[in-house]
Amino acid sequence: MNTLKIAFIGAGNMAEAIFSGLIKAGHPASHICIVDPVEARCQALQEKYQLQVSTLAEACLSDLVVFAVKPQQMAVVLQQVIGLISADSTLISVAAGIQTVSFCDVLGDAINIVRVMPNTPCLLGEGMSALFSNAGQVHHDRAQYLMVSSGEVVWVDTERQLHAVTAVSGSGPAYFFLLAEIIQASAQQMGLSEELAQQLVNQTALGASRMLKESGCSAIELRQRVTSPGGTTQAAIDIMYEEGLPAAVRKGVLAANQRSKELG
Ligand SMILES: NC(=O)c1ccc[n+]([C@@H]2O[C@H](COP(=O)([O-])OP(=O)(O)OC[C@H]3O[C@@H](n4cnc5c(N)ncnc54)[C@H](OP(=O)(O)O)[C@@H]3O)[C@@H](O)[C@H]2O)c1
């Protein structure tokens, strides 16, 4: 796989998260190229990673062509690549909401397209990416190779499931950031300095997420274990329930799911 030529159309945050993981995992930077209208960014990325800056026509001849522009920029990009894509290429879209059929409508039914829903922890190699494709095994294997260096990879059986994935792991980091933000503000309200509050919250978040992943216990079990009857945690959780936190979070996640459908 490390001889594959990989092109990124759009060299923003998500593209960098993916190609930096690939390079760290040993994929030669000389086999990676980027296309982006922001010249200064291309130059900076070329210097940082020793990759290639390419034209759209050259990029489209790559084994993997990763579309990593904003969803609202995709229609323009697809028009620009009409007639340039090689029949053997694996096309990867990381854009939220844009359906496989939208790519086929513009580029034809013969394209090999894989949709990927990644998330920002890909930047640290701790991403969660869900993939969907109707293309053949070779394209599945290439897409798996592309994403596995930036975190965990799962495949979903239907494209529809990507809406739920978007609502859970795509948008999910922001939900945890919001919770961290609120706990930190409460810590400061109780008189702790910003620096101390942040340290307490960040390390607690890291410890809690490692326990979720590594203890083999469910979230409910872990929560119950640290919630002694009549204790401090119980006092907090009772209020959080009374104030409607579970319903608010559930409604929020469902709203993200709905929004993903609307964007599609
Ligand atoms: N960031 C996330 O957490 C996340 C999570 C899941 C999925 N995604 C998906 O990842 C995609 C990229 O997101 P991002 O956060 O990386 O966005 P971003 O940082 O804005 O990167 C997109 C890049 O594409 C460039 N671009 C625009 N039009 C182009 C064109 N015609 N040809 C080539 N490049 C072009 C943009 O340039 P300009 O700045 O000049 O427009 C920008 O540098 C989105 O579709 C998003 O849905 C992101």
What is this entry, summarized?
The chain has two domains: 6-161, Rossmann fold (3-Layer(aba) Sandwich); 172-263, ProC C-terminal domain-like fold.
Can you give a write-up of this model?
This protein has 264 residues and is of the alpha/beta class. The chain has two domains: 156 residues, Rossmann fold (3-Layer(aba) Sandwich), CATH 3.40.50; 92 residues, ProC C-terminal domain-like fold, CATH 1.10.3730. Helices cover 53% and strands 14% of the residues. The protein has twelve helices and eight strands. Strand 1, helix 1 and strand 2 form a beta-alpha-beta unit. It is elongated. The mean pLDDT is 95. The structure holds NADP nicotinamide-adenine-dinucleotide phosphate.
CATH fold descriptor of the largest domain? Rossmann fold
Gyration radius (Cα, Å) is 21 Å
Q: What's the total helix number?
A: 12
Task: Give the structural class.
Answer: alpha/beta
* CATH architecture verdict of the largest domain: 3-Layer(aba) Sandwich
Largest sheet: 8 strands, mixed
Number of strands: 8
Beta fraction of the residues?
Answer: 5-15%
User: Helix share of residues?
Assistant: 40-55%
Average pLDDT works out at: 95
Low-confidence stretches: none
Secondary-structure element series: EHEHEHEHEHEEHEHHHHHH
